[in-house]
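User: Please predict structures.

Assistant: First:
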Amino acid sequence: MGTSTGRVVAGDGAQIGYRTTGSPGDNSPVVVLIHGWAQSSRSWGDELVDNLSRDVRVIAIDLRGHGDSLVPSDGHLTAADFGGDIAAVLAAEVTGDQPVFLLGWSYGGLVVGDHLQHRADGAAAAAGNLAGLILVGAITSMGRGEAGGRVGPAMRAALPAAYSEDPAVATAALQSFVGELVPPQQGSLAQQFLGISLTVPPAVRAGLFARTASYDDLFAGFDGGVMVIHGTADTVVDISCARHVETLVPGTVTRYWDGAGHAPFVEDPARFAAQVYEFVNATVGAMR
């Protein structure tokens, strides 16, 4: 199924870009793909989006500062920005009580928390029915001592060099980082990921980590379904982050991919799409 592009104006006037597929049926579930640090809606790949869109409607968002969305000149980014941006896209694209599933990869898991906070604050009427959360190699908090925010050696090794204004320094750090996202035999795809990272300004790359967030209570209090997908060989986000979600949300559906890295949807898009749809279908079925 083909994709179309869209833009919406967030509450502060910022333009937020996204890609979306058509609905495969009336009132089909909506899966919102929220990418990670220094990536974009293009990171998910056409094969995954095509596989998913056979059964659900897909909305792949460009986070503020990334892709086709507004780039703040100073790199300053807040939880309110991200939470409101997700809400603006949902308000533009989701109607009625369509079941909505937020799928956050890596830093995208933190943005899921930002949106939960936005909803809790009552900042805007919630669009659709937030039925489930899918956390993929994800962090859910940020700051010293936050159990849901522990990063792995590849992430630590990339910083702070990846923030550098010096192209040689930043490119080397980002190339090493991207090497942990894409299997070695997929060199062309690795170059695509590197190119996406380089389009994100250094100030934005730094700004994403220049804040703290603690969302344990919000995740623990979420009344929909929750699933975690995490590679056991993930060197970007520690697997303890997924285990932490399990402790917060009894009944969390877990899919630990033995030997997989930080981006399981790259390693096997068909398997990934099947697991996502299995969870979506079971969650929607339980709501009836």
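Second:
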Amino acid sequence: MTTGEAGATSTLRCELLGPLRASRDGVEIPLGPPKQRAVLAVLLLQEARPISYDGLVEAVWGGAPPVHVRNLVQKYVSGLRRALGDDAELTWTGSGYRLTGVHADDLRQRRELVAEAVAARDTGELRRAAELAGRAERLWRGEFAEGLRTPYLAAERLRWAEKRLTVLEARLAGLIELGHSFECVHELVRLVAAHPLRERLSELLMLALYRAGRPSDALTAYEAVRQRLAEAMGSDPGPGLRSLHARVLRQDLALLPPPRVPSG
């Protein structure tokens, strides 16, 4: 954020929870070719820490960079300086390239929302925790750094996909505990279809179905994930799924839904 001569404030915002996007005062900024955008994404993820020249090359091109990679790095750094303008500072520190004055704002917002959601959950404020986790989820616009194919960002994409699923699972578990099982079933069916071997999602789907008055469907969901695990991995469901399956079979009264907490 900078202040111009007339006192007007200019706000530069960058986002990574989807295609990389930068905007100034709400107007999107052209960021150049894909590799230049990848350099920016890598620099943003350093959070104002310097990254060495070799580290930047490895992150963007992997172990087989092009012959003229040094010229390319200099070209992309210059291009980013022009694109970001005076709102950000991209410098060579002697130990590496360092980007300051701009952040991955959506990552910061998500981190804060998730921390607040965890704190709310730990104090028993399940409805507030679910609302905060939902706000964190709505920050996503697609895959992490979508469309940028580099070794470093590919690894980060997997890491952030796992973080996203973990928060989704916690949010849905909270909603089920609040008595909103029926509303969760559709989303869980979609998530299980997208992640068929993720046992926690199948466990939540079984619980939501049972509490929505569909015990036979809960048992069908268990059999489906059992078959998928056997075919894909040659293994049985883990203890969480097996325990829930046994409790559904014996119609454990403790699985009955709690009194519904109004969502308003």
